[in-house]
């Protein structure tokens, strides 16, 4: 009997399962790209502080965005946020959930905080 035709694979042929506990995240400010490997349970504050320290920026002078949504320092890659219902189309006694659902290879964008912009 041939092992080639029996449909089984040897341990050498099987791929190791991906480590789903860690993520590789790219942080970019359009001039620089920094890659971080973090756990899914790590607060993004740690990543934000590390990026700013490496780039010589103040954490209070920049904003971090994921898919166009501002990321909070207390968020984690698997964070679920509860938002109180607000706005013209939502009753104030309801709430909704959002989840970052970051995946391996995702990017965070860093933008300079803009203050002002009003008429003078």
SSE order and pairing:
Elements: E1 22-28, E2 33-39, H1 44-55, E3 62-66, E4 69-70, E5 80-84, E6 95-99, E7 107-112
Parallel strand pairs: 1-7
Antiparallel strand pairs: 1-2, 3-4, 3-7, 5-6
CATH homologous superfamily label of the domain at 22-80 and 101-112: Phosphatidylinositol 3-kinase Catalytic Subunit, Chain A, domain 1
Distance between the termini: 87 Å
Structural class: mainly beta
Mean pLDDT score, rounded? 78
How many extended strands? 7
Envelope shape: globular
Tell me the major beta sheet: 5 strands, mixed
**So how many helices?**
1
Helix proportion range: 10-25%
**CATH class label of the domain at 22-80 and 101-112:** Alpha Beta
Physical arrangement of strands within the biggest beta sheet: 2-1-7-3-4
Run of helices and strands: EEHEEEEE
What is the CATH topology of the domain at 22-80 and 101-112? Ubiquitin-like (UB roll)
Rounded to the nearest angstrom, the radius of gyration is: 21 Å
CATH architecture of the domain at 22-80 and 101-112: Roll
